[in-house]
Specification:
Layout: E1 19-25, H1 27-30, H2 37-48, E2 52-59, H3 63-76, E3 79-83, H4 94-102, E4 106-108, H5 110-122, E5 136-138, E6 142-144, E7 153-157, E8 161-165, H6 169-187, E9 194-200, H7 205-212, H8 215-218, E10 222-229, E11 232-239, H9 246-257, E12 261-263, H10 270-281, E13 285-289, H11 295-301, E14 310-315, H12 319-326, H13 330-336, H14 341-353, E15 359-365, E16 380-387, E17 390-397, H15 403-425
Parallel strand pairs: 1-2, 1-3, 3-8, 13-14, 13-15
Antiparallel strand pairs: 4-5, 6-7, 7-8, 9-11, 9-12, 10-11, 15-16, 16-17
Helix pairs in contact: 2-6, 3-4, 10-15
């Protein structure tokens, strides 16, 4: 049984890797209404630090269920990270459950209340009385500042160090960086494993295995792993801190991947890789989308600073729109159809002519699940890239009848087609 409060220095000087458990709280997770992205994030970050994640559990909005999950986690692990249940409503019960686990009372915490009040004052709003509930915390806990939300986090040291963070993903991630990550690093007396990520488009897992399968044999102490995250594939190298061959292995994998490699940083998306190339050339991009319905534009403007390289876009879904907005000739549409390389390149030319951009990407296809023909089945997508002295087209047959997958794959394929062309030209 977990009971009592241990000294705050319980974990100082630990020589073995910390053992961790993740507890997610919320009825919406159990009913499938919400995907538990928080547990995914925390498992990855803890593992990257060299912490052994023993498991993860999910509890609904019942104090006994949350208590049971936290108690079991504390008995198994050295550090427990719990997300959710810190809000102002009656079903936010994490503080009550943790107080039960450690045998303490819950009371209004002055520091937590001041934090909640300050957030509302900064927003020019009056705090509702129900928000006082967010300051009801276990006696003896450490209050954790939440600079991006109203719910203070808190931590408690007993038989395990328990961090309770908000369930809102961007709040949880900020508080991980501010509070949990530094604490974990302080407890470890060894460097975390060395890791390197390669993000790849254009090669499947089996092709990557054939290309890179000999790396662990050539570079002693280096482990190789693969992960599919549609539409990209990822290659991971892992080694202990003292493995001298790690840098050489990274260089060799980078060389073999060549232009299929678009990023070596988990935070750098494909659109950002394209942006770097366009900015280096001082050029801008316009888009002409049909079946993707603005998805490529969405990927572009998601990147901060996109106004420096993204000019504008058209969603020309109908043939009439292709003609009136982009100047696609009626004869082209009649002779080749809307889903054709001829129409795609005409769309791209029209986008360049009608914008302040030097480059344009166009997409037209059959996203499905209906609308295909024997000649152009569902998943047939035509692409064009037009730029200074450049006109390139291609057609893909995406083997899926899932509308979302065809659109997503097409959007990435279009940006990757532009990326490869820019790499050929250089800066």
């Amino acid at each position: 049984m977990v009971a009592g409060v241990s000294p705050a220095g319980r974990f100082a000087g630990m020589t073995d890797s910390l053992r961790a458990w993740i507890v997610s709280q919320g009825e919406e997770l159990l009913t499938g209404q919400t995907l538990d992205s928080n547990a995914h994030f925390l498992a990855g970050r803890l593992t990257a630090l060299g912490v052994r994640v023993l498991g993860a559990s999910t509890a609904g909005d019942r104090v006994d269920a949350i208590e049971e999950a936290l108690r079991a986690a504390c008995e198994r692990a050295d550090v427990v990270v719990c997300t959710g249940g810190l809000g102002p409503t009656a079903d936010d019960l994490t503080a009550d459950a943790l107080a039960r686990v450690f045998g303490v009372e819950v009371e209004e915490n002055a520091d937590a209340l001041a934090q909640v009040l300050a957030r509302y004052e900064a927003a020019g709003r009056r705090m509702a009385e129900s928000n006082r509930r967010q300051a009801q915390l276990p006696v003896g806990c450490d209050v954790l500042l939440n600079p991006v939300g109203t719910a203070p986090g808190f931590a408690f040291t007993g038989d395990a160090r328990v961090f309770c963070l908000p369930g809102v993903p961007h709040e949880m991630r900020r508080m991980w960086a501010d509070h949990v990550d530094p604490w974990v690093r302080e407890q470890l007396d060894h460097e975390p494993p060395r890791r390197h990520l390669f993000r790849v488009l254009g090669k499947g897992e089996s092709q990557l295995q054939d290309l890179l399968g000999d790396v662990p044999e050539r570079f002693a102490g280096v482990e190789l792993g693969f992960r599919t995250k549609m539409p990209e594939n990822q290659v991971k190298l892992v080694a202990a801190p003292g493995v001298d061959a790690f840098a050489d292995a990274v260089s060799e994998v980078r060389r073999r991947l060549g232009k299929d490699l678009f990023a070596e940083d988990e935070s750098v998306e494909l659109a950002a890789a394209v942006a770097q190339l366009l900015v280096a050339r001082g050029e801008r991009l316009a888009l002409a989308e049909s079946c993707t319905g603005g998805l490529v534009g969405h990927l572009c403007v998601t990147e901060a600073g996109s106004s420096a390289w993204f000019d504008r876009g058209w969603i020309t879904y109908s043939n009439r729109a292709k003609r009136s907005d982009l100047g696609v000739a009626k004869d082209t549409l009649v002779a080749h159809g809307a889903v054709s390389e001829e129409t795609a390149v005409a769309m791209a030319r029209g986008a360049v002519e009608r914008s302040d951009a030097q480059w344009a990407v166009a997409i037209s296809g059959v996203a499905g699940p209906t609308g295909g023909t024997p000649d152009k089945p569902v998943g047939t997508v035509c692409f064009a890239v037009v730029g200074p002295g450049v006109e390139r087209t291609r057609t893909l047959r995406i083997p899926s009848r899932s509308r979302d997958l065809v659109r997503r794959f097409s959007a990435y394929a279009a940006l990757d087609m532009l990326r490869r062309q820019l790499l050929r030209l250089g800066s």
